[in-house]
Amino acid sequence: MSFVGSGTAPDQPVRGRPRSEAVERAILEGTMKLLEDGVPLAEISIERIARTAGVGKATIYRRWSGKEELFVDVLRTAEPQDPEQLPGTSMRDDLIVLLESLRQRGLANRSSAILHNVHAQMKSSPKIWAAYHNSVILPRRRAGVEVLRRGQQNGELRADLDVELVNDIIVGPMLVRAVLRPEADLPEDLAERIVDTLLAGLRPVN
Amino acid sequence: MSFVGSGTAPDQPVRGRPRSEAVERAILEGTMKLLEDGVPLAEISIERIARTAGVGKATIYRRWSGKEELFVDVLRTAEPQDPEQLPGTSMRDDLIVLLESLRQRGLANRSSAILHNVHAQMKSSPKIWAAYHNSVILPRRRAGVEVLRRGQQNGELRADLDVELVNDIIVGPMLVRAVLRPEADLPEDLAERIVDTLLAGLRPVN
Protein backbone atom coordinates (compact mmCIF):
# COMPACT_ATOMS: atom_id res chain seq x y z
CA MET A 1 0.00 0.00 0.00
CA SER A 2 1.32 3.43 -0.75
CA PHE A 3 1.19 6.66 1.16
CA VAL A 4 0.66 8.54 -2.07
CA GLY A 5 -1.85 6.24 -3.60
CA SER A 6 -4.16 5.76 -0.69
CA GLY A 7 -2.59 6.44 2.70
CA THR A 8 -3.45 10.11 2.71
CA ALA A 9 -7.02 9.78 1.49
CA PRO A 10 -9.37 11.01 4.22
CA ASP A 11 -11.70 8.01 3.92
CA GLN A 12 -9.00 5.46 4.72
CA PRO A 13 -8.96 3.73 8.11
CA VAL A 14 -6.44 5.14 10.58
CA ARG A 15 -3.14 3.23 10.59
CA GLY A 16 -2.30 0.96 13.49
CA ARG A 17 1.25 2.25 13.66
CA PRO A 18 1.65 6.01 14.03
CA ARG A 19 5.12 6.22 12.46
CA SER A 20 3.89 4.52 9.30
CA GLU A 21 3.68 7.67 7.19
CA ALA A 22 7.15 8.84 8.14
CA VAL A 23 8.56 5.40 7.29
CA GLU A 24 6.86 5.39 3.92
CA ARG A 25 8.12 8.85 3.19
CA ALA A 26 11.67 7.75 4.08
CA ILE A 27 11.40 4.81 1.70
CA LEU A 28 10.07 6.93 -1.15
CA GLU A 29 12.71 9.58 -0.55
CA GLY A 30 15.46 6.96 -0.28
CA THR A 31 14.46 5.57 -3.67
CA MET A 32 14.37 9.07 -5.14
CA LYS A 33 17.83 9.72 -3.74
CA LEU A 34 19.21 6.65 -5.53
CA LEU A 35 17.63 7.88 -8.76
CA GLU A 36 19.05 11.37 -8.22
CA ASP A 37 22.46 9.80 -7.73
CA GLY A 38 22.08 8.35 -11.20
CA VAL A 39 21.69 4.69 -10.20
CA PRO A 40 19.90 2.92 -13.10
CA LEU A 41 16.44 1.55 -12.28
CA ALA A 42 17.62 -1.97 -13.09
CA GLU A 43 20.28 -1.77 -10.38
CA ILE A 44 17.98 -0.51 -7.63
CA SER A 45 16.97 -3.48 -5.51
CA ILE A 46 14.64 -3.55 -2.52
CA GLU A 47 17.71 -4.34 -0.45
CA ARG A 48 19.51 -1.23 -1.62
CA ILE A 49 16.45 0.94 -1.03
CA ALA A 50 16.14 -0.49 2.49
CA ARG A 51 19.77 0.34 3.19
CA THR A 52 19.41 3.90 1.84
CA ALA A 53 16.18 4.54 3.75
CA GLY A 54 17.51 2.97 6.94
CA VAL A 55 14.73 0.40 7.24
CA GLY A 56 14.51 -3.36 6.98
CA LYS A 57 13.50 -5.11 3.76
CA ALA A 58 10.40 -6.50 5.48
CA THR A 59 9.26 -2.96 6.25
CA ILE A 60 9.21 -2.26 2.52
CA TYR A 61 7.54 -5.52 1.57
CA ARG A 62 4.83 -4.82 4.14
CA ARG A 63 3.87 -1.74 2.08
CA TRP A 64 4.68 -2.63 -1.53
CA SER A 65 4.43 -6.00 -3.24
CA GLY A 66 7.61 -5.33 -5.20
CA LYS A 67 9.94 -2.73 -6.58
CA GLU A 68 7.66 -2.04 -9.56
CA GLU A 69 4.83 -0.74 -7.34
CA LEU A 70 7.31 1.21 -5.24
CA PHE A 71 8.78 2.94 -8.32
CA VAL A 72 5.33 3.89 -9.52
CA ASP A 73 4.61 5.55 -6.16
CA VAL A 74 7.92 7.40 -6.28
CA LEU A 75 6.90 8.73 -9.69
CA ARG A 76 3.46 9.70 -8.45
CA THR A 77 4.97 11.67 -5.59
CA ALA A 78 7.24 13.52 -7.99
CA GLU A 79 4.66 14.18 -10.71
CA PRO A 80 1.79 16.68 -10.54
CA GLN A 81 -1.37 14.91 -9.37
CA ASP A 82 -4.25 14.23 -11.72
CA PRO A 83 -7.29 16.44 -11.00
CA GLU A 84 -9.49 14.83 -8.37
CA GLN A 85 -12.61 16.59 -9.51
CA LEU A 86 -13.66 17.87 -12.88
CA PRO A 87 -15.71 21.07 -13.17
CA GLY A 88 -18.64 19.17 -14.69
CA THR A 89 -19.97 22.35 -16.31
CA SER A 90 -19.54 20.99 -19.84
CA MET A 91 -17.65 18.34 -21.77
CA ARG A 92 -15.46 21.10 -23.16
CA ASP A 93 -14.50 22.38 -19.71
CA ASP A 94 -13.79 18.87 -18.40
CA LEU A 95 -11.63 18.01 -21.40
CA ILE A 96 -9.63 21.20 -20.96
CA VAL A 97 -8.94 20.35 -17.31
CA LEU A 98 -7.83 16.82 -18.26
CA LEU A 99 -5.54 18.11 -21.02
CA GLU A 100 -4.18 20.84 -18.79
CA SER A 101 -3.08 18.21 -16.27
CA LEU A 102 -1.21 16.38 -19.07
CA ARG A 103 0.46 19.67 -19.93
CA GLN A 104 1.50 20.14 -16.30
CA ARG A 105 3.01 16.65 -16.28
CA GLY A 106 4.88 17.47 -19.48
CA LEU A 107 6.27 20.65 -17.91
CA ALA A 108 7.30 18.76 -14.76
CA ASN A 109 9.00 16.10 -16.84
CA ARG A 110 10.98 18.71 -18.73
CA SER A 111 12.14 20.56 -15.66
CA SER A 112 13.14 17.40 -13.81
CA ALA A 113 16.03 15.43 -15.26
CA ILE A 114 15.19 12.57 -12.89
CA LEU A 115 11.55 12.31 -13.94
CA HIS A 116 12.62 12.41 -17.55
CA ASN A 117 15.25 9.76 -16.99
CA VAL A 118 12.95 7.46 -15.02
CA HIS A 119 10.25 7.70 -17.69
CA ALA A 120 12.77 6.80 -20.39
CA GLN A 121 14.09 3.82 -18.41
CA MET A 122 10.61 2.67 -17.51
CA LYS A 123 9.85 2.00 -21.18
CA SER A 124 12.60 -0.64 -21.19
CA SER A 125 11.16 -2.42 -18.17
CA PRO A 126 7.86 -4.09 -19.10
CA LYS A 127 6.98 -4.82 -15.44
CA ILE A 128 7.44 -1.26 -14.21
CA TRP A 129 5.71 0.08 -17.28
CA ALA A 130 2.75 -2.23 -16.68
CA ALA A 131 2.49 -1.09 -13.06
CA TYR A 132 2.59 2.58 -14.11
CA HIS A 133 0.10 1.92 -16.88
CA ASN A 134 -2.38 0.21 -14.60
CA SER A 135 -2.24 2.68 -11.74
CA VAL A 136 -1.73 6.00 -13.56
CA ILE A 137 -2.54 5.85 -17.27
CA LEU A 138 -5.55 3.55 -17.20
CA PRO A 139 -7.54 5.54 -14.60
CA ARG A 140 -6.80 8.71 -16.57
CA ARG A 141 -8.06 7.13 -19.78
CA ARG A 142 -11.21 5.95 -18.01
CA ALA A 143 -11.86 9.47 -16.75
CA GLY A 144 -11.50 10.83 -20.29
CA VAL A 145 -13.81 8.26 -21.83
CA GLU A 146 -16.37 8.95 -19.10
CA VAL A 147 -16.34 12.67 -19.91
CA LEU A 148 -16.86 11.86 -23.60
CA ARG A 149 -19.79 9.54 -22.85
CA ARG A 150 -21.47 12.32 -20.88
CA GLY A 151 -20.82 14.60 -23.86
CA GLN A 152 -22.60 12.19 -26.17
CA GLN A 153 -25.51 12.02 -23.76
CA ASN A 154 -25.92 15.78 -23.48
CA GLY A 155 -25.34 16.45 -27.18
CA GLU A 156 -21.89 18.06 -27.03
CA LEU A 157 -20.21 15.19 -28.88
CA ARG A 158 -21.35 13.50 -32.09
CA ALA A 159 -23.15 10.33 -31.04
CA ASP A 160 -21.79 8.26 -33.95
CA LEU A 161 -18.16 8.55 -32.82
CA ASP A 162 -16.20 5.81 -31.05
CA VAL A 163 -15.30 7.36 -27.67
CA GLU A 164 -12.08 5.34 -27.43
CA LEU A 165 -10.88 6.84 -30.71
CA VAL A 166 -12.08 10.31 -29.72
CA ASN A 167 -10.11 10.01 -26.49
CA ASP A 168 -6.92 9.33 -28.48
CA ILE A 169 -7.80 12.23 -30.77
CA ILE A 170 -8.04 14.53 -27.75
CA VAL A 171 -5.02 13.41 -25.73
CA GLY A 172 -2.88 12.70 -28.82
CA PRO A 173 -1.79 16.25 -29.67
CA MET A 174 -0.94 17.06 -26.04
CA LEU A 175 0.98 13.82 -25.55
CA VAL A 176 2.91 14.38 -28.78
CA ARG A 177 4.03 17.76 -27.46
CA ALA A 178 4.53 16.76 -23.84
CA VAL A 179 6.06 13.32 -24.29
CA LEU A 180 7.29 12.72 -27.82
CA ARG A 181 8.54 16.19 -28.75
CA PRO A 182 10.50 17.49 -25.75
CA GLU A 183 11.53 20.59 -27.70
CA ALA A 184 7.94 21.57 -28.60
CA ASP A 185 6.08 24.55 -27.15
CA LEU A 186 3.66 23.96 -24.26
CA PRO A 187 1.97 27.39 -24.08
CA GLU A 188 -0.55 28.15 -21.34
CA ASP A 189 -3.58 28.12 -23.60
CA LEU A 190 -2.62 24.88 -25.37
CA ALA A 191 -5.31 22.68 -23.76
CA GLU A 192 -8.03 25.14 -24.67
CA ARG A 193 -6.79 25.61 -28.24
CA ILE A 194 -6.62 21.87 -28.86
CA VAL A 195 -10.10 21.19 -27.51
CA ASP A 196 -11.74 24.11 -29.35
CA THR A 197 -9.99 23.25 -32.64
CA LEU A 198 -11.15 19.63 -32.35
CA LEU A 199 -14.72 20.55 -31.51
CA ALA A 200 -15.01 22.97 -34.45
CA GLY A 201 -13.14 20.76 -36.95
CA LEU A 202 -10.36 21.61 -39.37
CA ARG A 203 -12.54 22.27 -42.40
CA PRO A 204 -13.44 25.88 -43.17
CA VAL A 205 -17.02 26.81 -42.33
CA ASN A 206 -18.81 27.85 -45.52
CA MET B 1 27.10 7.98 -46.32
CA SER B 2 24.57 5.22 -46.00
CA PHE B 3 23.33 2.71 -48.47
CA VAL B 4 19.81 3.12 -47.16
CA GLY B 5 19.77 6.86 -46.95
CA SER B 6 21.22 7.70 -50.32
CA GLY B 7 23.43 5.00 -51.81
CA THR B 8 20.64 3.26 -53.71
CA ALA B 9 18.97 6.37 -55.09
CA PRO B 10 19.13 6.28 -58.89
CA ASP B 11 20.37 9.84 -59.19
CA GLN B 12 23.53 9.24 -57.15
CA PRO B 13 26.90 9.05 -58.87
CA VAL B 14 28.24 5.54 -59.40
CA ARG B 15 30.61 4.46 -56.62
CA GLY B 16 34.27 4.22 -57.28
CA ARG B 17 34.51 0.88 -55.49
CA PRO B 18 32.11 -1.80 -56.74
CA ARG B 19 31.99 -3.78 -53.48
CA SER B 20 30.87 -0.72 -51.53
CA GLU B 21 27.20 -1.69 -51.30
CA ALA B 22 27.99 -5.19 -50.16
CA VAL B 23 30.31 -3.81 -47.48
CA GLU B 24 27.68 -1.39 -46.23
CA ARG B 25 25.11 -4.13 -46.15
CA ALA B 26 27.51 -6.30 -44.13
CA ILE B 27 28.03 -3.49 -41.63
CA LEU B 28 24.30 -2.80 -41.25
CA GLU B 29 23.55 -6.52 -40.93
CA GLY B 30 26.39 -6.98 -38.45
CA THR B 31 24.94 -4.24 -36.26
CA MET B 32 21.48 -5.76 -36.54
CA LYS B 33 22.90 -9.14 -35.54
CA LEU B 34 24.38 -7.65 -32.36
CA LEU B 35 20.98 -6.10 -31.56
CA GLU B 36 19.25 -9.41 -32.27
CA ASP B 37 21.68 -11.10 -29.90
CA GLY B 38 20.41 -8.71 -27.24
CA VAL B 39 23.54 -6.58 -26.88
CA PRO B 40 22.47 -3.21 -25.41
CA LEU B 41 22.97 -0.18 -27.68
CA ALA B 42 25.33 1.35 -25.15
CA GLU B 43 27.66 -1.65 -25.40
CA ILE B 44 27.84 -1.70 -29.19
CA SER B 45 31.01 0.08 -30.26
CA ILE B 46 32.28 0.72 -33.78
CA GLU B 47 35.06 -1.74 -32.96
CA ARG B 48 32.58 -4.47 -32.09
CA ILE B 49 30.53 -3.81 -35.22
CA ALA B 50 33.70 -3.95 -37.32
CA ARG B 51 34.59 -7.31 -35.79
CA THR B 52 31.09 -8.72 -36.34
CA ALA B 53 30.91 -7.45 -39.93
CA GLY B 54 34.43 -8.61 -40.71
CA VAL B 55 35.66 -5.19 -41.78
CA GLY B 56 38.13 -2.65 -40.43
CA LYS B 57 37.05 0.29 -38.25
CA ALA B 58 38.23 2.72 -40.92
CA THR B 59 35.84 1.12 -43.40
CA ILE B 60 32.95 2.04 -41.12
CA TYR B 61 34.18 5.54 -40.38
CA ARG B 62 34.54 6.14 -44.12
CA ARG B 63 30.75 5.70 -44.40
CA TRP B 64 29.34 6.95 -41.09
CA SER B 65 30.58 9.76 -38.89
CA GLY B 66 29.79 7.78 -35.74
CA LYS B 67 27.72 5.03 -34.23
CA GLU B 68 24.67 7.30 -33.89
CA GLU B 69 24.33 7.76 -37.65
CA LEU B 70 24.96 4.06 -38.20
CA PHE B 71 22.21 3.05 -35.75
CA VAL B 72 19.77 5.38 -37.45
CA ASP B 73 20.50 3.73 -40.80
CA VAL B 74 20.06 0.28 -39.25
CA LEU B 75 16.65 1.41 -38.02
CA ARG B 76 15.73 2.84 -41.41
CA THR B 77 16.58 -0.45 -43.10
CA ALA B 78 14.38 -2.32 -40.64
CA GLU B 79 11.43 0.11 -40.64
CA PRO B 80 8.92 0.61 -43.46
CA GLN B 81 10.01 3.53 -45.65
CA ASP B 82 8.13 6.81 -45.59
CA PRO B 83 6.11 7.41 -48.77
CA GLU B 84 8.29 9.03 -51.42
CA GLN B 85 5.36 10.63 -53.21
CA LEU B 86 2.00 11.81 -51.99
CA PRO B 87 -1.08 11.45 -54.19
CA GLY B 88 -1.52 15.24 -54.31
CA THR B 89 -5.22 14.86 -55.16
CA SER B 90 -6.34 16.61 -51.96
CA MET B 91 -5.09 17.52 -48.50
CA ARG B 92 -7.31 14.76 -47.14
CA ASP B 93 -5.76 12.10 -49.38
CA ASP B 94 -2.22 13.23 -48.61
CA LEU B 95 -2.85 13.26 -44.86
CA ILE B 96 -4.28 9.74 -45.01
CA VAL B 97 -1.16 8.48 -46.82
CA LEU B 98 1.11 10.14 -44.22
CA LEU B 99 -0.89 8.69 -41.31
CA GLU B 100 -1.04 5.29 -42.96
CA SER B 101 2.74 5.20 -43.08
CA LEU B 102 2.86 5.93 -39.34
CA ARG B 103 0.43 3.04 -38.84
CA GLN B 104 2.70 0.75 -40.88
CA ARG B 105 5.66 1.76 -38.72
CA GLY B 106 3.62 1.04 -35.63
CA LEU B 107 2.71 -2.41 -36.92
CA ALA B 108 6.36 -3.13 -37.79
CA ASN B 109 7.45 -2.00 -34.35
CA ARG B 110 4.98 -4.34 -32.72
CA SER B 111 5.92 -7.37 -34.76
CA SER B 112 9.64 -6.83 -34.27
CA ALA B 113 11.00 -7.22 -30.76
CA ILE B 114 14.30 -5.73 -31.91
CA LEU B 115 12.77 -2.60 -33.40
CA HIS B 116 10.71 -2.15 -30.27
CA ASN B 117 13.74 -2.63 -28.06
CA VAL B 118 15.97 -0.29 -30.07
CA HIS B 119 13.32 2.43 -30.01
CA ALA B 120 13.01 2.13 -26.24
CA GLN B 121 16.78 2.26 -25.74
CA MET B 122 17.17 5.14 -28.14
CA LYS B 123 15.11 7.36 -25.85
CA SER B 124 17.79 6.98 -23.19
CA SER B 125 20.54 8.03 -25.56
CA PRO B 126 20.22 11.74 -26.42
CA LYS B 127 22.78 11.54 -29.25
CA ILE B 128 21.15 8.63 -31.06
CA TRP B 129 17.74 10.14 -30.50
CA ALA B 130 18.90 13.45 -31.98
CA ALA B 131 20.29 11.68 -35.04
CA TYR B 132 17.02 9.77 -35.55
CA HIS B 133 15.01 12.91 -34.95
CA ASN B 134 16.95 14.93 -37.52
CA SER B 135 17.04 12.35 -40.26
CA VAL B 136 13.65 10.61 -39.84
CA ILE B 137 11.17 12.59 -37.74
CA LEU B 138 11.97 16.12 -38.87
CA PRO B 139 11.61 15.45 -42.64
CA ARG B 140 8.31 13.68 -41.90
CA ARG B 141 7.04 16.69 -39.94
CA ARG B 142 8.07 19.01 -42.72
CA ALA B 143 6.15 16.92 -45.24
CA GLY B 144 3.05 17.08 -43.03
CA VAL B 145 3.24 20.84 -42.52
CA GLU B 146 3.73 21.30 -46.27
CA VAL B 147 0.54 19.33 -46.98
CA LEU B 148 -1.35 21.49 -44.47
CA ARG B 149 -0.07 24.72 -46.03
CA ARG B 150 -1.32 23.56 -49.42
CA GLY B 151 -4.64 22.76 -47.74
CA GLN B 152 -4.88 26.31 -46.42
CA GLN B 153 -4.10 27.65 -49.87
CA ASN B 154 -6.75 25.60 -51.62
CA GLY B 155 -9.40 26.08 -48.96
CA GLU B 156 -9.46 22.57 -47.43
CA LEU B 157 -8.06 23.74 -44.09
CA ARG B 158 -9.19 26.70 -41.99
CA ALA B 159 -6.78 29.53 -42.76
CA ASP B 160 -6.75 30.81 -39.16
CA LEU B 161 -5.16 27.63 -37.74
CA ASP B 162 -1.49 27.26 -36.77
CA VAL B 163 -0.22 24.50 -39.09
CA GLU B 164 2.33 23.30 -36.53
CA LEU B 165 -0.46 22.68 -34.03
CA VAL B 166 -2.67 21.11 -36.68
CA ASN B 167 0.16 18.76 -37.57
CA ASP B 168 0.32 17.57 -33.94
CA ILE B 169 -3.47 17.26 -33.93
CA ILE B 170 -3.30 15.00 -36.97
CA VAL B 171 -0.33 12.79 -36.09
CA GLY B 172 -1.12 12.76 -32.35
CA PRO B 173 -3.89 10.15 -32.31
CA MET B 174 -1.95 7.78 -34.58
CA LEU B 175 1.26 8.17 -32.56
CA VAL B 176 -0.62 7.58 -29.33
CA ARG B 177 -1.89 4.29 -30.71
CA ALA B 178 1.26 3.25 -32.55
CA VAL B 179 3.91 4.36 -30.07
CA LEU B 180 2.48 5.09 -26.64
CA ARG B 181 -0.25 2.42 -26.42
CA PRO B 182 1.30 -0.79 -27.72
CA GLU B 183 -1.86 -2.71 -26.81
CA ALA B 184 -4.21 -0.42 -28.79
CA ASP B 185 -5.98 -1.37 -32.01
CA LEU B 186 -4.44 -0.30 -35.32
CA PRO B 187 -7.29 -1.21 -37.71
CA GLU B 188 -6.86 -0.83 -41.48
CA ASP B 189 -9.16 2.18 -41.79
CA LEU B 190 -7.65 4.06 -38.84
CA ALA B 191 -5.83 6.74 -40.87
CA GLU B 192 -8.99 7.53 -42.82
CA ARG B 193 -11.20 7.59 -39.72
CA ILE B 194 -8.86 9.94 -37.87
CA VAL B 195 -8.54 12.39 -40.77
CA ASP B 196 -12.27 12.45 -41.53
CA THR B 197 -13.20 12.87 -37.86
CA LEU B 198 -10.76 15.78 -37.52
CA LEU B 199 -11.96 17.50 -40.68
CA ALA B 200 -15.62 17.28 -39.66
CA GLY B 201 -15.07 18.15 -36.00
CA LEU B 202 -16.39 16.48 -32.86
CA ARG B 203 -19.41 18.70 -32.36
CA PRO B 204 -22.76 17.44 -33.68
CA VAL B 205 -23.96 19.15 -36.85
CA ASN B 206 -27.24 20.92 -36.09
TrEMBL record, chains A, B:
<feature type="region of interest" description="Disordered">
    <location>
        <begin position="1"/>
        <end position="20"/>
    </location>
</feature>
<dbReference type="GO" id="GO:0003700">
    <property type="term" value="F:DNA-binding transcription factor activity"/>
</dbReference>
<dbReference type="InterPro" id="IPR011075">
    <property type="entry name" value="TetR_C"/>
</dbReference>
<dbReference type="InterPro" id="IPR009057">
    <property type="entry name" value="Homeodomain-like_sf"/>
</dbReference>
<keyword id="KW-0238">DNA-binding</keyword>
<dbReference type="InterPro" id="IPR001647">
    <property type="entry name" value="HTH_TetR"/>
</dbReference>
<dbReference type="GO" id="GO:0000976">
    <property type="term" value="F:transcription cis-regulatory region binding"/>
</dbReference>
<dbReference type="Pfam" id="PF00440">
    <property type="entry name" value="TetR_N"/>
</dbReference>
<feature type="DNA-binding region" description="H-T-H motif">
    <location>
        <begin position="45"/>
        <end position="64"/>
    </location>
</feature>
<protein>
    <submittedName>
        <fullName>TetR family transcriptional regulator</fullName>
    </submittedName>
</protein>
<feature type="domain" description="HTH tetR-type">
    <location>
        <begin position="21"/>
        <end position="82"/>
    </location>
</feature>
<dbReference type="InterPro" id="IPR036271">
    <property type="entry name" value="Tet_transcr_reg_TetR-rel_C_sf"/>
</dbReference>
<keyword id="KW-0805">Transcription regulation</keyword>
<keyword id="KW-0804">Transcription</keyword>
<dbReference type="Pfam" id="PF16859">
    <property type="entry name" value="TetR_C_11"/>
</dbReference>
<dbReference type="InterPro" id="IPR050109">
    <property type="entry name" value="HTH-type_TetR-like_transc_reg"/>
</dbReference>
